[in-house]
Every structure is written in C-alpha cells, then in structure tokens.
Request: fold
Amino acid sequence: MGFTVAIIGRPNVGKSTLFNRLIGEKKAIVDDFSGVTRDRIYGECEWGGKTFNVIDTGGFVPHSKDVFEKHIREQVLIAIQEASVLLFIVDATTGITNLDDDFAQLLRKHQKNVFLVVNKVDNNARMSEANEFYSLGLENIFFIASMTGSGTGELLDAVVERITDDNEEKTEEDIPKICIIGQPNVGKSSLVNALLGEERNIVTDIAGTTRDSLHSRYSKFGKNLILIDTAGIRSKAKVHENLEFYSVIRAIKALDESDIAVIVIDASKGITHQDLAIYKMAIKKHRGIVIAVNKWDLITKETNTARDYEATLRSKLAPFSDVPIIFISVHDKQRIFRIIEIVEKVYENLRRKIPTSKLNEVMLEVIEHYHPPAMDGKLVKIKYVTQLPTPTPAFAFFANHPKYIRESYRNYLENKLRDTFDFNGVPINIFFREK
Reply:
C-alpha cells in the first residue's frame, strides 16, 4: 500500500498552506477564516528521492453540532485510521487552545506516528513562546512557518525516514497488478466478476457498493495477473458519505500498488471531469493506462460512431493520448477478455528497455533532422541519449545547454520515441542533462 500522510488539526492553523507547500502547487483553498476546507484534497509530495500521498483535511471541532463540522470530524477520524503518519498542526500565535488539547488526547489513543507541527514560528519571539506545546505530551515536535517554508525540510526528513523500501517487500512472483478504477456505478465490480467467471464481488445498482479494494487472482488461458477492484472515486463535491471517503483513500492506495490502471468510464455519460482527474492521477504515478468504455450496448450506433467517440475522447485526454481505448459491454460480455490481452501488451511496454546503441542510432538521426531551436542566442546540441534504470520508461538526453530546450521540443522527442518504439499506454519521462 502507498505511504499516506494526513494533515490534521483544528480550523485555521494553516493546514492547507502546508499542504500546498508540500505538493508544490496551490491546490487547496486558503483563507483567514475557519471552515474553508470542507472536503479532503489529495496530492503527492516528493522528498529525498521518495514519494508519498498527502491528504489535506478540514478543521476538527470535537463537540460541534454544526452539520459541516460534524461531517468533517467523522472524515478526519477516518483519515487518522488510514494514514501512515499524522501531521498535527497547531498555531504558535494563539498558543494551546482547548481544541488542541482535546485533539492531542484523541491522538494519544491511536498507535500512530504523530508529528506535532507548530506553525507560524517565523521569529525568535514566537520560537520561545512555542515551547509551551511540549506540554501536550507528544514526542515528535517540529517548529515551522508553512507560509515561508522555514523548518519544513526537517519535517520532511523525519517523514521519509518512516517510509520503508518497497523493494524489500517484493514477492517472489513478478505478476502484473491491474487496478480497475473509475467513478461509482460504471461497472467495475461487474467487469471483475465477468473476467473471473464468478460472483466474487458484490454488484448492485447502488453507487459505492464496493467499500474496499478487493484482490483477485486471474489465471485463465495461460494468463496470470492480479485484478484489484477499487471502490468508486466520486468527485469531492459529491462525497457526502464517510464510507465513500474511506473508499477513496483505499482506491488511491490500490493505484499505488498496481502496475496498470484500467479506467472504466460510462459510455452514456462520456468522459467527465472526475474521469480526467483519475486519468491524470494515474499518469502522475507513472502507471500503465487502459481506457475501457463500458455500457457500449446502450449507445445507438451509426456509421463511424466508435471512431468519432474515440476521437472526441482522445482530444480530451491530450496532451498524453497514446493510450489503448476499448469499447466493451460487461452486461453482454462483449470484448471483455480483449482487456486482458491489451493489459499484457501495456505491461510489456511499461517494462521495455531499449539498447543504448539502438536508441542513439534512431534518436540522433531524429535530432539531426530537426535540431532544438536556438534560444537567447544559444545553439543547443544534443549528443547522446540513454534510457535510465527506472521501473517505468525514462530517458536522459545529454546536451550542451539543457536548460534552453523548450517544452515543444520535449514533446517532439517523446512523439518520435513513441513512433519508433511501442510505448502505447505508458507515460514517458524525458530529462535533459548537461553533457
């Protein structure tokens, strides 16, 4: 399972500001009044060569009868149960409040890694005043200013120390792990049942029936892989039910442990904003991707219906649209076993290693045909390319002025790599390094 860090605390202590700093983008809404973060937000943080999930939670108010604060409180408790490390944020400018004290008592009951993070410590006077937080009785304490980033390095060092090396936990078998993922009620569990030929998972017309990630071994027709059926991910604005929030965390973790994501979408609804969010999450995590358009039997067919549908779909998936798209009907068992064949091919692409000699023979000719455009009077020359020893395809191009290579040229090189070597369904990383 993926390593998950939850940022928790009472309202208005700077949780979302710290979240934005950790993930490196302004994703969480930040304001000076409590209750701004009504729902959970997810992101990834990379530090010291390790990557982990981060959950931003709403402000915790223990005994409030406000409907929003009650809902947030229940979801924060779920985040506490599911997270690997808890960052308990307090505010140095206000000192210890009754809410902080109640929260600390709650956390002491859980056998969790809890880091007490005293925020807004941006001068010596506040550092002196912040020492009072030792009285909360929590062992690991850090003094930071999330607005400026002061002290966050030491905090992140301590977090990544808790991350175990995934390589030490690998099983003897190298079996592809396939995550069946998508919004609720698109047919994920029905697809797994149809592939396995048995009613392994509960299937109903009620969205969110699958509450946990279910692992099933698929061993048919000489194929051998693990199918992971995840709970449906619904857009955050529609998460009204705490069990569904619990399932979202589990779905993200299932994506972490999988090799390939089969993203199931509803043909009658088309690809939605939330489907695209799932797609981008899979790309960011460097997973192989297959798009399965289910309920194709419900679509009225005309000439070129599938072709036009696919063209529209790819335009929405851009800029990375080199993914297999298959139209299926789980109800009619139409083309469902074709998914297994496609998944095996994508897994092969995910593990593909190109010999350095072949890579340079092809790509240097491509570069010679179209050189990187000059920038600021600098003539850029790329002399060498090699594939990096990473679990997923990544390439390093060595140049005299790597920082002057534009994004458009990066896209050009990626397209040529895809044209020459089959990386269908696989995100590619390209790095430019100084020769």
Remarks:
- The two ends are 38 Å apart (CA to CA).
- Residues 67-82 form the longest helix (16 residues).
